[in-house]
Design brief:
single chain; alpha+beta; 3 domains
């Protein structure tokens, strides 16, 4: 049967939080405080409430082991379970007059022994303490201040704790973009991105969207950025999906209002419905991506078929995904075409890497065959310009400039004639 835990603590309040300032030994910290993924968190985006531990803890570990002036700032930890109970303590009558008011909010925080602690802030310090004690157990007798906040393992509880984590780290060491996408409860586009990963029939499938690029055994957790290994089974990454959501959702109901302030649930629900329709239409217009992905043996086979890399699907490449989304937004904002007409023109493109306009991002291998090659990651602006003239050209001069740029960069003639692209011009174009 679990034994009760007693921790001396000061009770305090700030904003809508009640928290407790406690004293714990390094040994107790190492033994009882965990990383969130050890408690069944982080591996699932929907329950992720902290960023993973990076690899730069060795310096802190050495500091603890070798510096007699060592000192670490307070850890901020969340606790769930354990039936926490705060018992205020008052001074005895003999000392009451001298210590009047100094015992305010002082007491003991008790748990029934089933509690679980995890770090909200100070994950690197926590990892260093755990590692240092393994090398020098005597460090376990030293103390550190720990700030304890309650956490409820529910959807609302995780949302509240995520927001606290993000706010703490924004005002201290900034979280990176990927962490904000996974955690931010005020950024509407981050909220919608996570909801797509949780609820969309295609995107919630295992390994369709790469969320983590690394999950280590000792707490290391790295969120995926904007690139995918050619052999990856994923369609895209969480960062690129966020970019796409921002581009095609620039005018959603949730974008009205104060920046960095959470939209209402009603506006978020309306936005999610509209966004889901747009995203499905975009995926289908871009070479029937959803159907082809589900029918393929693997994501790798669709991205770069063995021995025929150039026949791979361009919309399996994050660089292409980003440029397509940017161009779609540009055309919509300029009022040149409506959404459905843009989708129709996207559908008319030949969706393979060696075909125009995607050939602008494809470099032949030294063997001289387009069947084998690699991405030209520096040519994103060229692809953007060519997509514009394929989808919604404004003038013959614009088309000529784009085709000339292709010839200059690729040292080859553009596969599509200017006359074919002129046919896409508005009637009143020059």
């Amino acid at each position: 049967m679990p034994s009760k835990t007693f921790v001396p603590a000061f009770e305090a309040k700030v904003g809508n939080w009640t928290y407790y300032s406690c004293l714990m030994s390094y040994a107790q910290v190492a033994r009882e405080i965990n990383f969130a993924h050890e408690l069944g968190g982080n591996r699932d985006l929907g329950t992720m409430i902290q960023r993973g531990v990076g690899t730069r803890t060795q310096e802190i570990t050495e500091y603890l082991l070798t510096n007699e002036n060592r000192f670490l700032g307070a850890l901020i930890i969340a606790v769930w379970g354990g039936d926490p109970n705060y018992l205020p303590v008052t001074m005895d009558a003999e000392n009451q007059a001298v210590l009047q008011g100094l015992d305010r909010n002082f007491g003991v925080l008790t748990f029934d022994g089933t509690q679980q602690f995890f770090a909200l802030d100070g994950q690197h310090r926590l990892k260093a303490i755990k590692d240092a004690i393994k090398q020098n157990p005597e460090l376990g007798n030293e103390d550190i201040n720990v700030i304890v906040v309650p956490h409820f393992d529910t959807a609302d509880g995780r949302r509240r704790t995520r927001r606290l984590f993000t706010n703490i780290n924004r005002n201290a060491k900034s979280t990176n973009l990927q962490e904000n996408i996974a955690l931010d409860e005020d950024d509407s586009f981050a909220i919608l991105t996570r909801r797509l990963l949780d609820e969309d029939d295609f995107l919630k499938r295992d390994r369709v969207v790469l969320v983590f690029s690394k999950v280590g055994q000792d707490g290391e957790l790295v969120l995926a950025q904007r690139s995918i290994n050619q052999a990856s089974p994923a369609w895209s990454t969480i960062a690129v999906l966020y970019d796409i959501v921002k581009e095609i959702g620039y005018d959603l109901p949730c974008t009205a209002g104060v920046a960095k302030q959470r939209a209402t649930d009603e506006l978020l629900d309306q936005s999610f419905e509209l966004l889901t329709v747009r995203l499905h239409e975009l995926l289908d217009a871009c070479g029937n991506l959803r159907e082809r992905y589900l029918a393929a043996l693997s994501g790798k086979d669709l991205r770069a078929p063995k021995g025929r890399d150039g026949a791979g699907h361009p919309f399996m490449r994050p660089a292409v995904q980003n440029q397509v989304a940017k161009v779609v937004r540009h055309i919509l904002e300029s009022g040149t075409l409506e959404w459905l007409e843009i989708m129709k023109r996207l559908s008319a493109l030949e969706w393979k890497m060696t075909a125009a306009p995607f050939s602008s991002m494809w470099i032949e291998t030294p063997e001289g065959t387009k069947a084998k090659g690699k991405m030209a990651s520096g040519n994103t602006q060229l692809l953007y310009d060519l997509l514009q003239v394929h989808l919604a050209p404004r003038s013959k001069a614009q088309i000529s400039r784009a085709l000339r740029a292709y010839s200059d960069v690729m040292k080859a003639k553009y596969p599509i004639t200017p006359e074919d692209l002129f046919a896409l011009l508005p009637v009143d174009a020059d």
